[in-house]
Amino acid sequence: MEQFRIFIVEDDPWYGEILEYHLSLNPDHEIYRYTTGKECLANLSKKPGMISIDYSLPDTNGVDLLKKIKQQNPDVPVIVISGQDDVSTAVELLRKGASDYFIKDDNTKELLWNAVTRIKEHQSLKKEVETLKEELGQKYDFNKAIKGNSPSMLKIFSLLEKASRTNINVSVTGETGTGKEVIAKAIHYNSDRKKKPFVAVNMAAIPRELLESELFGHEKGSFTGALGRKIGKFEEANTGTLFLDEIAELDMSLQSKILRVLQERELIRVGGNEKVSLDVRLIIATHKNLLEEVKKGNFREDLFYRIMGLPIELPPLRERGNDILVLAKYFLDEFCKSNKMGSITIAPDAKDKLMKYRFPGNVRELKAIIDLSAVMCDGSSIREDDLHFASASGDLSVSEEKTMKQYTIDIIAHFLKKYDNNVIKVAKKLDIGKSTIYKMIQNDELTLK
């Protein structure tokens, strides 16, 4: 385990030894003791994890030494120990960046021990967060987060690289399920804001009466139920990226308020007066045609031009050719790995079935289909019968390209299944002759199940 390096700057040899001995009781601590501020500054290249300084040193005082330490290493925690119980001095030191201020007495060594423990825990947590952010950035590397090599996706990759190099607003459009939030995260985690917050808001998922408070925050007592101050999503995303999904669902009053926030680069919480400065990169998404919404009078034209920025239109999965199989394999491998299953492949007949399907639910639907097929298949290969396609209307889907006769057969088969093969009832429901259905059964065009 890496040792935690501590500097003790104390000109009283006896008191310095007491502090060194006490902190050395933890074998993970590496202690360096100095008697002057000059010695401490000369050794900052050793990168201490914490520094304890006596306020009164032979060559300097605590305020000046703290300032010089922070100039060289602004992140290192510094604790000041003084023989004087002076509140004004303590306040000044804390304001200038000291982590704590202790008075020399019998409790000092215990207070210092507890302070070191807190600092170590904080630094450990900070390092863990940095590691997670690094992993998250790697996860959303363009080639890892977004699968596909079709011409339409290669154009998307080019736009993503352009978006990541600047802070321009980005508007992502595409059918439901095409992966708009994945695109937004990929832009954020490949930009210079990647270590700052990424905040996503689905406008359609928040009740209209709560949306203003959710976006801009509120002050205590600003309305019934406002028991304390709440930080809104804009403020939460400050210095980072705010992703507003389904932005076309905003009503006009909120559109005007968002426009003002974007223009002024500041907000006022609901029920408050304080102005909060903002530095937020905005990415918006919608499955609707925003320009058409402007023409219909449902969306403000001035807001449209403010948020449009760099437009990225995601192609539906059915137009991405062989990307269907690339994604299918990726989802299958991920599902097997996360569920500790052996390797599963996709048989040629299953690949053919996937390529013929139109995927009205796009990438999201493909993942659901592949996850289910991995569970349903027997053995180590997914076959055609393991793939189950379902649309919002049940087993029917008009997204596939078929002849009218085949659609007719599919419709009759669907209703036969629904009404337990009751031919007479189905004939009445569809307003066709029952002989038509019997003839299809005789010709093996329909199978009773």
The figure for the number of domains is 4
CATH class category name of the largest domain: Alpha Beta
Distance between the termini: 66 Å
Number of helices: 19
Could you tell me the CATH topology label of the largest domain.
Rossmann fold
Major beta sheet, specifics?
Answer: 5 strands, parallel
> Radius of gyration from the CA trace?
32 Å
Instruction: Based on Cα principal axes, name the global outline.
Output: elongated
Tell me what the CATH architecture of the largest domain is.
3-Layer(aba) Sandwich
State the low-pLDDT regions, or none.
Answer: none
Strand content: 5-15%
Name a few traits of the molecule:
single chain, 449 residues, Rossmann fold, Helicase, Ruva Protein, domain 3, 5-stranded parallel sheet, 19 helices
Blueprint of the fold:
Layout: E1 4-9, H1 13-23, E2 29-34, H2 37-42, E3 50-54, E4 56-57, E5 60-61, H3 62-72, E6 78-82, H4 87-95, E7 100-103, H5 108-139, H6 142-145, H7 151-165, E8 170-173, H8 180-189, E9 198-202, H9 208-216, H10 233-236, E10 241-245, H11 252-264, E11 266-268, E12 275-277, E13 281-286, H12 290-295, H13 301-308, E14 310-313, H14 323-338, E15 345-346, H15 348-356, H16 362-376, E16 381-382, H17 404-418, H18 423-430, H19 434-442
Parallel strand pairs: 1-2, 1-3, 3-6, 6-7, 8-13, 8-14, 9-10, 10-13, 15-16
Antiparallel strand pairs: 4-5, 11-12
Helix pairs in contact: 1-5, 7-8, 14-16
